[in-house]
Design brief:
CATH architecture: Alpha-Beta Barrel
Radius of gyration: 18 Å
Number of strands: 8
CATH topology: TIM Barrel
CATH superfamily: Aldolase class I
Structural class: alpha/beta
Helix content: 40-55%
Strand order of the largest sheet: 6-5-4-3-2-1-8-7
Distance between the termini: 20 Å
Number of domains: 1
CATH class: Alpha Beta
Largest sheet: 8 strands, parallel
Strand content: 5-15%
C-alpha cells in the first residue's frame, strides 16, 4: 500500500468519511490524557486520534511522543498520534523526526504566498517520513495553548481559495475558518457565529478527497457538532470539553486521596468524557 493510504491517520479519517461518522482528535497534555483516550477508545470500540501541541515537544520531549505512539500501537483499536497547530517552522522540523502519524501545519499567520510555501515544504518532507499533513486556511481566533488571539472577523476561508490551497500544497486534510473560534465563543455561541453556507461551499468544492477538520469546539452543543459533520467535518478536535469531569475530580480530591488512586480514578473520569463524544460523533462501535 502506497503513501498516503498506508498512513494511520489517513486510514482512520477516510474510514470515517466512508462510514458516515466523524472521529475525535483529543488534545492531551500528560500520561493520564493518553491513557484516557486509549481506555475510552477500547471500551467504545472506536478509532481515535491522540493530539499534542508543540508545547509537549518542548516540555516532555520527543521521548514522550514515542511512548504515546507505542501505547497507541498496542491498543486493540486504531489510534493515531497527531501534532496540532505547528506554528513555527522549527517545530515542524522537530516534529518530522518524532513518532507522529500526522501533523497540523498552521501557517495562518503568514501572508498567502508564504503560507503556501511553508505548508508545501512540510508536506514534501512529511511524505518521506510517511506523515500526513493537516493545514489551516484562514485564521481562527486564539485562546488555546500557544495560539495567537486575533480579531474574530479578520480572515475566513474563501471556498475557491481552499481548492487552490489544497492543489498547491498537497495537504491531506483542511481546517477551514468559517466563524469557528479557539476558546470560548462570543455571546450567541457557535449558533450565531458559524457561517454554514460558507462551510457547505467549502465542502462542495473540495469534495470527499479532502476531509475537513473542525477546530473550535469549546463549548459546542451536540447539535452543532452534528451540523458540522453533515457539512463535511470528519475529524473533530476536542480539548477542554472532554476533560471537565477529570478536572472536577482532581479539584475535589487532590488533598484527600492517595496519588495512585487519584491518577487511576482521574483517568476513569477523563475517559468518560471521551466516550461520550465518541457516541455523539458516531465512531463508537466502528473499530
Amino acid at each position: 500500500m502506497a503513501y498516503p493510504q498506508n498512513n494511520k491517520t489517513w486510514q482512520i479519517i477516510h474510514e470515517a468519511r466512508k462510514g458516515g461518522y466523524a472521529v475525535g482528535g483529543f488534545c492531551v497534555y500528560n500520561t493520564e490524557g493518553v491513557l484516557a483516550v486509549i481506555k475510552a477508545a477500547e471500551r467504545c470500540r472506536s478509532p481515535a486520534l491522540i493530539q499534542f501541541f508543540p508545547w509537549t515537544l518542548h516540555f516532555q520531549g520527543p521521548a514522550f511522543i514515542k511512548y504515546a505512539s507505542e501505547v497507541a500501537r498496542a491498543a486493540s483499536v486504531p489510534i493515531a498520534i497527531h501534532l496540532d497547530h505547528c506554528l513555527k517552522p522549527s517545530d515542524a522540523d522537530l516534529a518530522l523526526d518524532c513518532a507522529f502519524d500526522s501533523i497540523m501545519v498552521d501557517g495562518s499567520m503568514f501572508e498567502e504566498e508564504e503560507n503556501i510555501r511553508y505548508v508545501k515544504s512540510v508536506v514534501d518532507r512529511a511524505r518521506e517520513k510517511n506523515i500526513t499533513v493537516e493545514a489551516e486556511l484562514g485564521r481562527m481566533e486564539g485562546g488555546e495553548d500557544g495560539l495567537p488571539t486575533i480579531d474574530l472577523e479578520s480572515v475566513w476561508t474563501n471556498p475557491q481559495d481552499a481548492a487552490e490551497f489544497v492543489k498547491n500544497t498537497g495537504v491531506h486534510f483542511l481546517a477551514p475558518s468559517f466563524g469557528n473560534v479557539h476558546g470560548p465563543y462570543p455571546p450567541g455561541g457557535a449558533e450565531n457565529h458559524w457561517q454554514l453556507d460558507r462551510l457547505q461551499n467549502i465542502h462542495r468544492i473540495l469534495g470527499d478527497a479532502t476531509p475537513l477538520v473542525l477546530h473550535g469546539t469549546h463549548p459546542l452543543s451536540d447539535d452543532m457538532l452534528r451540523k458540522g459533520m453533515e457539512l463535511g467535518m470528519v475529524k473533530v478536535n476536542q480539548n477542554r470539553n472532554v476533560r471537565d469531569g477529570y478536572h472536577k475530580y482532581i479539584r475535589e480530591n487532590y488533598d484527600k486521596t492517595e496519588l495512585t488512586v487519584l491518577q487511576v480514578q482521574g483517568v476513569e473520569e477523563y475517559s468518560r468524557g471521551v466516550e461520550r463524544l465518541m457516541e455523539v460523533l458516531g465512531s463508537a462501535g466502528k473499530a
